[in-house]
TrEMBL record:
Residues 161-331 form the JmjC domain. SMART domains: JmjC (SM00558). SUPFAM superfamilies: Clavaminate synthase-like, SCP-like. This is Transcription factor jumonji. InterPro entries: Cupin_8 (IPR041667), JmjC_dom (IPR003347), SCP2_sterol-bd_dom (IPR003033), SCP2_sterol-bd_dom_sf (IPR036527).
Length: 331
């Protein structure tokens, strides 16, 4: 790969390569299955050169391989605008599958399910048990200004054991300083036994679940995934602000990815001079409590802030188009 010039893929080595990724051929399938951070942390992918760029390139390969369909942003925006505008996110037990599909997934309506995570062995995922059973697992938390770097290859990462990371979990948040965040890391193999896929996703249509572990004060800035997504709160609390897909015109979106759009405006501190249309946006706040699972339909914008030390697990339905895209467009 080279920094300048038209892109060209050829076998062999570029004499001015700015980045080199090496891995065993057998691990390539693991990359395609989304195991990038884990492979890197365990030394199975070697990255010479810019780490942020290397990890993001490897992730891009996997996204490309998984989603062999293309998101239709207009359709997602149109479908979500069909019902009455949501005032708040409903909380309820998981309904029958057919009801979930019709009233939430196909209707592009987020919902908080209060009974789904209750069937997990959440004690096995407590900081104490994580340290005891998985403390030696190598992890690569985001550090620095990962909010500014979000959805770009410019992330910086630290490398440590999970036990070392857990030592930081109870640190009090410091004003204006982002704590290191173990965000969007594939759930380590041994931990999968304690996690259950949401009842409304067929597991083979999802990528590997990702974990989001961090102290109070972590932030994932406003963005949307163009895939159906479920966020399960294992411990701790998170505050979210959601915006329906149809409000993309007020949020100053940008994208360098097939499946994620960033938003340049920060809903908690909007700069209305720079982003005047944001004054017309209507966000829906909600707080995710331990044991709750939020279904985020494809295309819904969300900003996520942890209020306490927190562990969430996310499930992205990557291998199939969003449910809301399976309905015929309104005539
Ligand atoms: O929990 C977080 O910090 C972000 C989660 C998220 O953005 C997602 O699941 O799509």
């Amino acid at each position: 790969m080279t920094r300048q010039g038209a892109s060209e893929i050829r076998p062999g080595q570029h004499e001015q390569a700015s980045l080199r990724l090496s891995l065993e051929p057998a691990d390539y399938l693991e990359v395609l299955a989304g195991q990038v951070t884990q492979l890197y942390a365990s030394g199975r992918i070697k990255i010479e050169g810019d780490l942020g760029l290397g990890l993001s390139l490897a992730r891009m390969l996997s996204t490309q391989a998984m989603a062999d369909w293309s998101p239709d942003r207009d359709l997602l925006e149109e479908v979500s605008a069909r019902g009455a505008p949501l005032e708040r996110i409903e909380r309820r037990d998981m309904p029958a599958q057919a009801v979930f599909m019709k009233e939430y997934a196909q209707a592009s309506r987020p919902v908080i399910l209060v009974d789904v995570v209750k069937t997990w062995d959440v004690h096995a995922l407590s900081p104490r048990r994580l340290r005891a059973e998985f403390g030696s697992v190598r992890v690569v938390p985001r550090v620095g200004d990962y909010v500014a770097a979000a959805f770009t290859p410019h992330h910086t990462y630290a490398q440590m054991s999970l036990a070392e990371y857990l030592d930081m979990l109870d640190a009090a948040p410091e004003q204006g300083i982002l704590p290191p965040y173990l965000g969007n890391n594939a759930v380590p193999e041994g931990l999968l036994a304690y996690i259950q896929y949401p009842p409304f996703f067929v597991p083979r249509t999802c990528g590997r679940p990702n974990m989001w572990l961090g102290p109070a004060g972590t932030i994932t800035p406003l963005h949307r995934d163009l895939v159906d997504n479920a966020l399960a709160q294992v411990f701790g609390r998170k505050r979210l602000m959601l915006f329906p897909p149809g409000q993309s015109k007020f949020l100053y979106t940008w994208s360098n990815s097939k499946l994620v759009d960033g938003a340049r405006v920060d809903p908690d501190h909007p700069d209305l001079e720079q982003f005047p249309l944001f004054a017309r946006a209507r966000g829906i706040p909600c707080t995710l409590e331990p044991g709750e699972m939020l279904f985020i339909p494809a295309g819904w914008f969300h900003k996520v802030c942890s209020l306490t030390p927190s562990l969430s697990i996310s499930f992205f339905k990557l291998y199939e188009p969003p449910a809301a895209m399976t309905l015929p467009a309104a005539t």
